[in-house]
Amino acid sequence: MLGAIAGDVIGSVFEFHNTDDPDFDLFCARSRFTDDTVLTLAVADHILNGGDYETLLKRYARAHPNRGYGRSFGTWVVWDRTGPYNSFGNGSAMRVSPVGFAFDSLEAVLGEAQRSAEVTHNHPEGIKGAQAVAAAIFLARTTKDKEIIKKDVSRRFGYDLNRTLSQIKANYSYDVTCQGSVPESIIAFLESNGFEDCIRKAVLLGGDSDTIACIAGGIAQAFYGGVPEGIVREVRERLSAELLAILDAFNAKCGLKMAL
Questions:
Q1: Is residue 151 part of a domain?
Q2: What residues make up the domain containing 77?
């Protein structure tokens, strides 16, 4: 889960200002956590402490305003009435990483990913995006085999993972749908040779940089076994005490190694 948060913080600077510089600074004064991190930790809170997803997502979003929430989600947060809004945006996929780390079977991961998504993203593509990311994380930490991850996710969810990043980038544009950003994020991971390399590749792809890096970063943490110590330090300095408490409790519960 820390890998997803790191991807969000690093990508935050480039969401609307994409870069082609492979040596971009990972952190600067403007690097910050966004809605991806807030809602990821809300999902982690649910796994740790129970409660319903709707209440937690709304509580976390209201407690951390102005973090880049999508328009439909922002409206949903202030609604008094309940219910999803048929979204297929990548918000369901950006917040799901804790699910991939917390459960011991793929079936349990897929079921919980659906529950975490459908409170807002009850469109089939919204659910599929969350399940695909959670499944990739589960497979990354349990098989350590990129070919298995690629074949299983492609077969199960129908995503084309045979494209290369250079092929995608040639015609890629800002796309906040699950179907237009989840497979691209997974490909960034598949082409990587380490955690930092994965985040750089995700950011360089362009588009919705913080969310693409968030999704790719969660998978990379699971596969590579942690996050580089320098990145961990920079990310932790940017989180509030409340968010750090959830992060640390989740890592302890799941026995996750934080730093490489």
A1: yes
A2: 2-254
The alpha carbon dihedral of 146, 199, 109, 104 has a sign of positive
First to last CA, the chain: 14
Tell me how many domains the chain contains: 1
pLDDT tens, position by position, 47-101: 999 999 999 999 999 999 999 999 999 999 998 878 999 999 999 999 999 999 9
Q: Is 260 a domain residue?
A: no
CB 252 within 8 A of CB 35: no
| 147, burial (CB in 10 Å: exposed 0-12, middle 13-18, buried 19+) | exposed
CB-CB contact of 211 with 181 (8 Å): yes
Q: Provide the CATH number for the domain around residue 163.
A: 1.10.4080.10
Each residue of 204-225: pLDDT tens digit?
A: 999 999 999 999 999 999 999 9
Q: Is residue 259 part of a domain?
A: no
